[in-house]
Amino acid sequence: MINFILDPKNGVPLYRQIINQIRFGIASGQLKSGEQLPTVRALAVELKINLNTIAKAYKELEIQSVLESQQGTGTFISSTKVELNHDERAKKLTDTCSEFLSVTNAYGFSHKEIIEKLKMMKP
Amino acid sequence: MINFILDPKNGVPLYRQIINQIRFGIASGQLKSGEQLPTVRALAVELKINLNTIAKAYKELEIQSVLESQQGTGTFISSTKVELNHDERAKKLTDTCSEFLSVTNAYGFSHKEIIEKLKMMKP
DNA sequence: AATATTGTACTAGTGTCGTAGTACAATAAT
DNA sequence: ATTATTGTACTACGACACTAGTACAATATT
């Protein structure tokens, strides 16, 4: 189970906040393989947003093989472990880091400086 | 002097590409304090885009005290060294890192993993 | 079989962003 | 003074993103 919290004035789109929280839930072990997620309608009511917003989040995660949806049944955490799409994962890391370096580089932050900061921010 | 290169199908807005290249030019020492940048019209012709796109980039950098513009004269690299706004700089790094960690965290990348990757990508 | 529950498809409205067109204002050059 | 050059202001248009409303289709339940 998972408790969703949305911040409408966050700048981050609602559907993306949902995606992130699900991904984090899985990564942190809070959500386990095969577990059922709230139905789009139930979550829509709970969060007081439109059901399509939930559906959009679910769908994107389904495309990424993180979730599995079936009409009339529900949406579940994919049984095939996420670790499987090793290439996708590696690419994501590379892309994210690349963009990150591009920005920090433009601002003149050195490699050392960046890594120091990241180590400090370890949550 | 500096040679601008724009990639329209990059996803990154043109005005932002200009901003990044100017910032990098300064950070890398390629652009020096007091140096004049191309006029909005000259650069617009050279890059075959609208002059307002250039103006938008210049303006944002002027707000950040990176550039100084004067009507009828031109746009110049700010004489007061960028190092001065120490706080802004620190905040920028914190914010950028924070967002970066937020994304990587959602995808389940560990702190170690991230830092290893960044070290590898050292250009 | 009939009904309820679930995800899906289609449409539309709203807002924002990026870029461009055009006219204006300030400074420099003649 | 007049003209040229420079940045600026205003408007508008197209594209896209985000969310919502509503109807449809598939599965489960009774």
Automatic annotation (TrEMBL), chains A, B:
PANTHER family: GNTR-FAMILY TRANSCRIPTIONAL REGULATOR, HTH-TYPE TRANSCRIPTIONAL REPRESSOR YTRA. It comes from Paraglaciecola arctica BSs20135. Signal peptide: none annotated. InterPro entries: Tscrpt_reg_HTH_GntR, WH-like_DNA-bd_sf, WH_DNA-bd_sf. It comes from the Bacteria. Residues 12-80 form the HTH gntR-type domain. Pfam families: GntR. One of its GO terms (molecular function) is DNA-binding transcription factor activity. Keywords: DNA-binding, Transcription, Transcription regulation. This is GntR family transcriptional regulator. Coiled coil: none annotated. Gene3D superfamilies: Winged helix-like DNA-binding domain superfamily/Winged helix DNA-binding domain.
